[in-house]
Every structure is written in C-alpha cells, then in structure tokens.
Amino acid sequence: MRMRTRPMVFVTEPGRLAVQDVLLPPLGPEDVLIKVKVATICGSDLHIYRGRHPAVQPPIPVGHELAGQVVAVGAEVERWRPGDRVAVEPVVVCGSCEFCRRGDYQWCQHISFQYRQGQGAFTPYFIAGQRWLHRLPDGATWVD
Length: 144
Fold this sequence. Notes:
- The chain has about 140 residues and is mainly beta.
- It has helices at about 45-50, 100, and strands spanning about 5-15, 15-25, 30-40, 60, 65-75, 85-90, 90, 110-115, 125-130, 135.
- The longest helix is centred in the N-terminal third of the chain and has 7 residues, at about 45-50.
C-alpha cells in the first residue's frame, strides 16, 4: 500500500473540529497497519471537544476506540496477518513500572492513550504496535 497522507479528525480548539491530512509514516518492525472499520466517540473525546479535558489541550487528534482489518505488518510481526480483524487497545502503558509488572496497568505511572501518541481513530488507516491489538471473534460484526 503506497499512501503518503491520510485524513484525520482533530479538535483544533474547543468546539471546533477539522479534518487534516497527516503523514502516514512507514511501519516500524512491530507495527500493524489497520484499515479502520469502526470508531467510537468516548467521553474523553467530548471533554477535549468542550475544552474540559484536564490533561489534553487542542489541537489534538481525537478517537482512541477503534476496530478494523489488518492490511500490512512490520517485519517482526508474527501474530498478525493481513485480513485479521482486530480491536486496538486504547490505553498505552509502559509495561515496566511496578503497577504494569503486577498486572495493574490501569495504574501505570506512564499511562497514555493512542490519541496522545499522535493519531486518532477517525481516519481511514491507523498504525498500532502489535502488542496493542486484540483479535475479534469471527462472528463479530463491524456495526449492528
């Protein structure tokens, strides 16, 4: 797939959305390129849109809850193949702090979200590290 940019939805200031073209970087060795099939609006997206998020200020891409189909994988990805249906873990954690080591990643000292990493879910293509993906059951539909 040869794509240089992709449209992505940003909150540019409280109460204002804009679609901006964003560079689609090359896949890293553990990255997975996903064709977004469904994305949802979360309460944190609404807080950002209303200018009331305590830790995030516009401009910022929105959306971190999504599912889609794998279209390409990095050189070191072994678990995922093109065609796989996946949901993306919205929470990004360090994996090495005390809380992560004992399995309480919701208390990670470095917790973040996909949109804080520079990309939002309201885009045709999303790149995620392979460790942040969950396989969808065969019977799951994109939208009911």
